[in-house]
Amino acid sequence: MRDPFYITTPIYYVNDVPHIGHAYTTVAADVATRYHRLCGDDSYFLTGTDEHGQKVERTAQENGKEPQAWVDSMIPQWQQVWDRLEISFDDFIRTTEPRHKDRVAKFVQQLYDQGDIYLGRYEGPYCVACEAFYLESELIDSLCPIHKRAVERVTEENYFFALSKYADWLLNDYYKRDPSPVQPVERLNEVIGFVSGGLQDISMSRAAVEWGIPIPWDPKHVIYVWIEALQNYITALGYPDGEQFKKFWPAVHLVGKDILRFHAVIWPAMLHAAGVEPPKLIFAHGWLLVGGEKMSKTKLTGIHPDQLLDAFGADAYRYYFLREIAFGQDGSFSWESMVARYNADLANDLGNLASRVLAMITSYFDGIVPEPAGRAEALASTAETAVATYRKGMDALDFAGGINGAWEIVRAANRYVVETAPWELNKSGDKAGLATALWSSAECLRLSAILLSPVMPDACEKLWSQLGIGRPLADQRLPNDGAWGGLDAGVRVTKGEALFPRIETK
Predict the structure, then answer these.
(1) Is the pTM here over 0.90, yes or no?
(2) Residue 144 annotated in active site
(3) Model confidence at 156, in pLDDT bands (50, 70, 90)?
(4) Is 460 a catalytic residue?
(5) Residue 495 burial by CB count (10 A; 0-12/13-18/19+): exposed, middle or buried?
(6) How far apart are CA 368 and CA 467, in angstroms?
(7) Phi/psi of residue 74, each to 5°?
């Protein structure tokens, strides 16, 4: 039995609408979840919105609304994008919900009661766009290192979390676990270097901000947004005694590399202080770059997913970003590369293969999948290796590697069709060879539909329907249904519309 699988995205600030950087993380989490469901794992997928803090408070003021009214107005715009992208989350948490606020208050009260929180005074730079306190040494030309904009100089009474107390545990216990709880390795090295340089205690409250969760023992302060936002990963599960918390925690967190330290330093230290198991894995992916720069709502350089969904559809969108960019590394997006990937992989490789094979079964066997007269050993062997490569990649969150493994079946099937030339076998009257060739090609389509279903759920469902297989695609499970030979002869195929009509551009 495999362990239960719990995966989260960051919860997203609702100071503006989503861009494709947010969608990148969310699609990755959805594909990982669907893959684990395909493997029969008990899985849970959480996403949501981060609705407190100075940035949201100021954005609401700029738009002439109270903060709660502002965040309420933004939620449908985020959920609409997730609907279009076929995001199959199990829970969507908002940090303004009572279930979150009440559990956060209990969590910080525990840390305070045991002496891990104390009153102090903070003086230094603060970036509202990041909602982050910075050291002077971290600034670049006196600017925020992420947003390249001026920081604010803050002097205020704050409560502090005794983060420095847990540096030794982080370095000599947590980061040394095998497998590593922080990936990829360059991100692990980054946090080890940061903690080794000396941890300072961090502010966990704001006295100059009103929009937040009040400190239970001192309501003049609100809990610093990052301290309370991180707790959504456990409050959504009913921490401390909810059944889902007992079943699914600890989590796999997918985050952008710019928020790595919050997740890989502060968050596990807080959990350890509270006597809670730290995250199983924090995987920090790279940035999506457009014109060489990270997209940013603050800098007005975000691309809304709808702009691409309208042109390519959800399946191609999901496929492109996870196939084109190695998860964990920075990657560049361009319209031209998306069109090229769509036409080469989806329209030509997969779409054309499905159209040709189904059309030949329709023409040569009246639409009935024939009984094979033999076994295409080389093709079967390639498929077996491809399934293993696919599973290894997907288990490691190497989406490009996993998809490429599945795609080897598509490539091998296309080569096989050219080599066996079913149209020539039909012309020569070799019915046995023709039956083997077309059954084997259709079997490759069956395997492709199963393996690619976490990535392209709608297209794979259409392909499954065209293959006429009576068992629902959603009921397929690895490893059994990923073995060669699962296609039943005698089922009726339907030619149907092209899965991915070619996109012509001027």
Answers:
(1) yes
(2) yes
(3) confident
(4) no
(5) middle
(6) 10
(7) -85, -30
